[in-house]
Every structure is written in C-alpha cells, then in structure tokens.
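Page 42, continued from yesterday. The earlier attempt failed because a stray header line got pasted into the input along with the sequence. Redoing it now with the clean sequence only.
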Amino acid sequence: MSHLLEEQKMNNNQNIPEEIKEDIINLLSNKISAEEATRLLAWLKESEENKVFFDQITDIWHTSSSMSKADDFDAQIAWNDISNILQKKPDQEKTGSLSRWLRPVAAAAAILAIAVLSALLIMQKSGNNQGPDQYVEMIAPLGSRSIVMLPDGTKVWLNSGSKISFSNTFGKSSRDLKLEGEAYFAVAKNKKIPFVVHTSAINITALGTAFNVKAYDDDNIIETTLEEGSVKIESISKTGKISAPLILKPKQKAVFNKTPVMQAAGNSVQETAVPAEKPVVQTNPEILVVDSVADTKPFTSWEGQQVDIPPRKTGRSGSQTREKIRC
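This time it went through. Structure tokens are written below.
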C-alpha cells in the first residue's frame, strides 16, 4: 500500500503541467505576470484536487524560509525542493488519501490564491486600458479571519465580516484605504507616502507603525489602539470639517463616540488619560485617550490564511469601479 501511495504521489506531481509549476512558484515569490495569473487561475478552478495540491505546495513554501527568502532564487530548484519534500511526506498525509485533505481547512490557500489572482488581474486590466480607476475590496467572510499583504508591504489582519477597500493605484502616490469593521495594521515604512485609514468618522495616519482599528458601521464607538510608532487621528464632522489632530503614543487607545449630545459644540479632539482597566467613553464626538493598554496586538495570533497583493503598474485616474474579493 505504501508503494502504491508513493507511486500515485509521483504521478500527481508529474501530471502537473510545467508551466503551471512555474506559475505557482512565480505567484509565491510575487513575480507572476498577468498571463501566468490567468492560466493559474483557470487551473485552480478545474478541480478540487488541483486546489488541494496547491495548498500542500503553499504550506511547504511558507514553512521553508530558504525558499521564500533566498536572494538567488531559482524557480526550477525551488520546485525540485518542493517535489522532494512531497515525496518524503508520511503516507497518511499524501494526496492518495484525498479524504484527509478535503476537510474544512483544506484548499484554503488555493481559495485565497483565486481571490488574489482575481485582484491582480483586475489591477492589471485597469492599468493596460488606462480607463477608470478600479477599487478592490478585500472581505473576510463571516466566521473566518484573513491576513492581507498590501502592495506596499503593509500586513493587515481582517476580523470576521470586516473589509478594506483601496484603489488599484495604492502605493504609487498615496496609501489610502477605507475600513469597515476591525483590522490590525503592521504598516510598511514610507516617509514620503503616509498610510491613511479612513473610517466613517475618523482618519488615522501613520508613516510606519503597528496599530488596531475597530470601526463597525453599526457601532457608535471607534477605537484605535497603538502598539508601536505613532499615529495621527482626526475626527470628521457630518459637514466634512476635520478636527485638530491628536497624536497617539504607543500603548494608548483612542476612543471616539460618533453620537453627539445636544450640547456638543462640534467635533473637537481632546486627550484625557484614564486607567486602562477603567475605560471611559465620552458622550460627545471627541476622542478619549486611554493610557497603558495591556494588549495592543489582539489579532496577530490569528491562524488566518495570507493573501499577498504585489504592486502592479496602473493607468490614469478616471471614474471609479469596484470589484469585491472575498478572502
């Protein structure tokens, strides 16, 4: 039986077209072209077996730092290494026993690959056509969490049901995105292009830092918690007036109430230090700062799958269209 499983594994490997092998490696190393992305996307959609096989390759890739971080990267050598590892896997983990792999978490990497390949093709298409700007929405489905790598290298942990949206020109001249829900951001440093998170009532600006934002549309409270670096927070009134900025320090949390009381004078920013174990939310649309927050990194322990969105050349600005990608 062991010999038969080994032979089936070898056949599965050999049945993968050479161009698909190269496409997989190029995707994992952020070097995939539009033509390769189109071909790989079609292959992934052909069968569940293809998705399961891709999931195994991705798992090997991410657990082998020598493959994903080598400066003198060679696609053929990388594939040979992957093939050798696959052949050495225990019999019970091989694709000969497909029922083991087709569990709820199986093929997760393939599903995410379909999402990111679709996003890449959208961005590539808009760049080639020099037509309307495209906006991509990355959505974490209900009941799951997702990790997204933005074109500038920023890593985003999306909570269940949350989404971010950004232009196909993200990272070129601006790094603005909109958040609905909750996300943790590990921002890539770029002093020339600030990173800005827009919510329904406040904007958070960072040059290179790590912070969490909770901004659900159906919640009156917006919270920003800073782990390291610094962020600038500005509240926005219903008339569009922007308040004076508040600079948040590490281990502080800013709490904003979107619902004003009748006596409120308007959207102003006020800094008040209170014990972290006794957070107080003001009843007017001001920002309250809570000092000494113990846990500023609530989502980095997630076991979500990662979606990488490499930078792509894009076209000129125009009218806007939007494409939703569930990750």
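Notes: The chain has eight helices and 15 strands.
Reminder to self: strip header lines before submitting.
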